[in-house]
Specification:
- The chain is an alpha+beta fold and 179 residues long.
- It has one domain.
- The strands form 2 sheets. It has a 4-stranded mixed sheet with strand order 1-3-4-6, with helices on one face. Strands 2-5 form a two-stranded antiparallel sheet.
- The radius of gyration is 17 Å and the shape is globular.
- The termini are far apart.
Length: 179
């Protein structure tokens, strides 16, 4: 059982953070848990304090935020690629060398679309994984939410391999779009 914490946050900040987190499949509780775990792991908060200038951080944020799940879906649909309802969208992590997503294990029961947004090179990769290709035991669950897959696909890896499970998604790559 976890400890419940109550705090107040500005409504505009809450709404903006929720929009950003929703695009990568996270929620506020999940990101707080991740942040706290990293503080414990590093015994520091230095990862929160970047030595990049504000303009560099804003440039990265702007580049990353230009592409959304819905925009990516429209781009692939306009090329005639059928996208079903089960889409996981992950952008290259700003502070790590991977794509990070936490889809529900239920995606394994359906034809699953996985989109990876390389906002640095402005490329979106689309993977289509047929239902029942994988079982729950093939993936590692998140430590704090066992119903979610802890997917961490290495960035700039031509095999698109998940760090946690060792699964390569390359054979499921159906298309990529430069934007």
């Amino acid at each position: 059982m976890g400890k419940q914490i109550t705090f107040e946050i500005d409504e505009d900040i809450h709404d903006e953070v929720n929009k950003i987190l929703d695009d990568v499949g996270l929620d506020i509780q999940g990101i707080i848990n991740v942040c706290f775990k990293r503080i414990i792991k590093e015994n520091s908060v230095s990862f929160l304090l970047s030595n990049k200038s504000t303009s560099e951080r804003n440039t990265n944020y702007y580049a990353e935020s230009k592409m959304s799940k819905s925009k990516a879906m429209r781009l692939f649909s306009s090329k005639g690629i059928k996208i079903n309802r089960d889409v996981t969208f992950a952008s290259k992590n700003n502070n790590a060398y991977n794509y990070w997503a936490n889809p529900n294990f239920e995606v394994l029961n359906y034809d699953w679309n996985l989109m990876l947004n390389d906002w640095i090179n402005k490329t979106i990769y689309l993977f289509q994984i047929p239902k029942s290709t994988f079982s729950i035991s093939d993936f590692k669950p998140r430590a704090d939410r066992s119903e979610l897959i802890d997917l961490q696909i290495m960035y700039n890896d031509p095999t698109f391999t998940d760090n946690r499970s060792g699964i390569s998604f390359l054979k499921f790559l159906v298309d990529e779009i430069n934007y």
